[in-house]
Every structure is written in C-alpha cells, then in structure tokens.
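User: Batch of two.

Assistant: Item 1 of 2:
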Amino acid sequence: MKYPAVLGFADILPELDRFDTIIDARSEGEYALDHLPGAINCPVLNDEERIRVGTLYKQVGAFEAKKVGAALVARNIARHIEEQFGDKPREWKPLVYCWRGGNRSGSLAHILAKIGWPVVQLDGGYKAYRAAVSAALEAPPALQWRVICGTTGSGKSRLLETLEGLGAQVLDLERLAAHRGSVLGHLPHEPQPTQKMFETRIWDKLRHFDPSRPVFVESESKKVGNLRVPEAVMAGMRAAPCVALTVSRANRVRLLMEDYEHFARDPQALNGQLDHLVQLHGRAKIDAWHALANSGAMPELVDQLLVEHYDPAYLRSIDRNFVQYGQAQVLELNDIGPQDFIRAAHALHAA
C-alpha cells in the first residue's frame, strides 16, 4: 500500500482500535470540543495561528496566507516529530485527521510517510467521523438493556461500578457526562464535556458491547446535567426490563453524605444549588434548608431533601418513563458497604 493511505471512516472503523496513535492535527480549541476516542492533539496550527492565517486570507489574499501558514505548519510539524514521534519504530502506525481531511492532516501525514511510517489519513476528517457517530446514535445496535432503578441515594452508580468490575457490560451515563444527574449533581473540579464529546463517549462504549450479553444502565432522565442522552438510546432503555434497587432511608442518607462530602464542606456552594429549587418549594422552604446547611445539620437536610423533593419526583416519573418497572426484579441492599454491592452485582451478573 502507498502511504499516506487516505481512507474513509467506514474503512477505518474496523481498524480504529489497532492504530498505535491517533493524531488530531486540529487546533487545541477544536480538539477540546470533541475528538476521536483516544486521540492526542498535535496542532499543525494552534488557535492563535489559525486566526492569524485566516485573517491574512481574508484581508490580503490566499497566496500571502499560504506562505505564512506553510512556515508555521513546518515549524509545528518539526516540533511534534522531535518531541513526540522521534522515538517511534519503523512499524509505528498512526492515524492522522484534521477538520475536513485536507491541508493540515495532509501536511503532517505526507511528512510522516516520507520518513517511512505507514501512516493513514482520514478522508473527510473529523466531519466525516462526526457524521458517522450521529448516524450510529440515531440507529444504535439492538442491545439487551437492563435498567437499574432506585430512589436517590440507593447506590445505583456504585452498583454499576461494581458490575463493571466483575466484567459486566455497563453504560454509566453519569460518569460519561461528569455529572450525578440531579440539581446537586455537578462534580467539583470536573466540568461536563461538550454535547458532541458526550455523544462520542456513548458511541465508543456502544460499539464495543456484545449484543448477546446484557448491558446495565441507570434509569436516567433525558438530560444528565446539561447534556442530552441520544433519543434512540433513551428509547431502548425505557422499553427495557428493570431492576428495582431498594435501600433503607437511613442508609441512603449515609450514602449521600459520602458521595456529596464536598457540599458538606462548602455550605455556600450547596445553598447556591438549592436556590434552583425555589420555584418548586418556595422561598421559605429553601431558606429553612439553607439554615440547616449553615448550621452543619447535613444528615437532617439530606433526609428532608429525600422525603420532600427527590422521592416524590422519582415516584411521579419512574412508571411513566420505564414501562417495565411494574415487573421489576427487586434487589434489596441491607447495607452500603463494598461487600453488599458485590453480592448484589453477583446476583445480577450471574442471572
């Protein structure tokens, strides 16, 4: 085969996990919005340089812009080779892409091929990849979903994590979305990904699942924080068999105190989130919850939130949104220690 080999995404997909390195030649800003799974960012033009070249193109002309751009591209490619690829063996096989699969990835792929590496360039670039992901999520594979249901604090996420540790197939949407799925679900120091990156993460999980084995997922709503679960994925989940995870309210309070320890340390941040519930519960109730947070009465506050906010909302929605919930397999946890979740996970994974 002649290198660089320029291939469409349909040809690359069966080999996607076999490339030694996937190189995103776009700018750091483009890469941050979304990129192929596992790709590293080696900008041929960074954000500032793209603006500079683009401005020259519009204000002066293509020839002047290309002269400046070529010098920048050459310097950047030289740096990437020296700093990141210089130690790669002759058989190292990278995949390179940019926005449309044109000048930026073409320049990098050409030089890597001239060195002697069997480099592949993605024809159509990120745009072709993104089109394939969107199409795949509109018609996802037929999977054997098993939906873990349960009131807030019942340990659904812990059970999914334990199941995954036992080798079960798990789609943890909250982990992929970097959000715990409620008004208090924002994770400290971890912003949510973009919608496109969220969809990339879901697509990458789905493509690795074995359709002959069950896939465990939590009974999420259509949105996880600010991100939307793809409609076809949600439709499959909502039609699937359910598992009803039950835990005593006292243990749910304990679990939430562990999982939301950051709010216990920062009542001001907690109160800021509780303010989003004013329309539902009124200013007087929110002020009372503020007072509990400020006084350090966190277990009492958590208990009230469960009884007055989370549980009623759950009971209103679960039967309506998950049609097989009425026939759910009941799975009771006596406590919330690791061994309790291991026993529960074994019961599901062996079924």
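Item 2 of 2:
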Amino acid sequence: MNFHYHLLINPAAGSGNASKKANQLIDLFDQHNYTYTPYYTTYAGEEKEIVARLVNLLTPWDEEMLQRSGDEPYHLLIVIGGDGTLHQVVNQFYLTGIELPVSYLPAGSGNDFARGIGLSRQVEEAFKQITAASRPQKINVLLYEEKIKEEYGLVLNNVGIGLDALIVATTNASSSKKWLNKYKLGSASYALYLIKALLTQKTFPIMIEVNGHQQEFNRTFLCTTTNIPYFGGGVPIAPMADPKKEVIDLVIIEKPNIFAIVRLLLQLLRKKHTTNKHYCHFSSSRIRIVSVVPQHGQADGETLGQRSYDLYFSTGSQYIWYADI
C-alpha cells in the first residue's frame, strides 16, 4: 500500500525526548522517501484538537485494504509521545465513535504500553515495525464508566486506585522527573517516589464485583485494573496480563507490615510476587470497583484526582499498526 503518514508529535513528552525521537523518525522518512505531515502540540490537550481535524482524513481499516491498488494513499496516524499522549488520542477516537488504527513511537517516561505489546522503544526498530506492517494488530483495551462523576472512556494500560496512583500524582508533580528524563532515567522517577508512597499510602476499603460475585477488602493498599503486565515504567505488577486477550486483570494488594513490604518488593523484582499472601488477582470480561473513601486515581499515567470511585469495566479493542519483528 501507498502510505501518507500523519505524525502527531508531543515535543514535551519525556521532558523533550519525544522531540528528539520525532526528528530521528523524520530523518528516516526522508531517507526512504516516505510521504508524511507533522503536527506538533504546543499545549496540553491540543492532541485532541489535532485528532478532531484529522478524523475525516485518516483511513479506517478493513481486510479489503490488502487488495487495494492505485495511487490513493492510506492515511495513517503515528503518535510520538508518551502513554498519556496516546491515551488522549485513542480516547478522542472513542468519544467521537470512529474506529481508526493508530501507530505509535514511544517517547515518554514509562512507555509501558509499547513494552506490553512488544513495540520497540528504539526509533530505528520502531520505524521498521511500523513500515513493515501490512495490517494493524487488534489490541484489547479497557472501557470504563465512572458513575459518580458520570465519566467514561478507554484505557490502554491500566486504571489504578491507591499506591500506584499516588506515585503517579507525586511523580508528575515533581521537578526531579524532568531531570531524570534528561538522562534517560525516567523510570527511576517512579522508583524514587515508590518508597515515599509505601510509607504514606494508607489502607482503604473497596468492594469489587467479578463474575457476579461481590467481595470486600478492608485494608486495600493498591487496586489496579490492567490490560498489560506493567505499570510505573516496567514494574511487572500483573505478569499474567496479555493485551491480545479479551480479558480484564485486576490486582489488589492489602497492606502488610514493613517487613512483609520488603519481602513483597524483593519478590516483585524476581516476578515471584503473585504467590505472596497479600497479593490477590482476578480476571473477567466485566468488573466493578467501588471505593467510597477518597483516594488518588490514575488512568494510563494521567491523574484522575483524589476522590471516591464507582467504576464499571468492560473490554473493547483498538487497532495498533505495527509488525512483530
């Protein structure tokens, strides 16, 4: 197929790392004589406006595209930024009711989505995966509806209440994140605030409903509904999660004492934490979570605020354009 690539670039992502990666990708497009048009965001949220202008130009996917011929190009959007940028783009697709494939060059701090689906974080390798693909891959996503504030949307990675959300809120507000990103240590910023969050996060009660059965947890420390194995820049919180399966994975950790926390962290580093007695895992196509005590929340690394939640999750899909190489 003949492609016209539309590059949506968030130059601020990764504390400027996205701008550098975008320049490298553009150099590769020039070297191979690919047709492309770049669009740069200049303020938070502008990616939604850019997508709104492009939706009628971008090409939907169907299998008949493989037989298409002629000079008419296939218009494909490539997002260059972090997981938060990609989150905003696919949510704009979802909220406007338009199903469009999207490609991605990860250039943020955590890049958990790319890690989860096997998309390279190196520019040249990602370029090969994008341009070698003849069709997009269907990836599972989480659809959510929050009843208290009547919000709904799509999540590629995970929604967290408690510990991971506190880490996200603290990290995103910190000055050290920019400094660490400068030296390609973005994931370390999560680790820096993990210790603080472990000491400050209080337990809270939640109610979950999975497969028609309700269960209560009174000493919840972390509650993460996830589509991929990772959060926080590569922490394998749910190693059993698979973004190509239509299932939701829910991880709940009840707060142990300080000695058990150390043991849990050591197990986490060795991916042995799923056997810890404080670790609970559930999987289903539909899940409800109620947290009446206000807590920090996050969705794909974007803060949701400190509040109560009544969340309903189901599964959906999003086409991501890349090849397994």
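The two ends are 19 Å apart (CA to CA).
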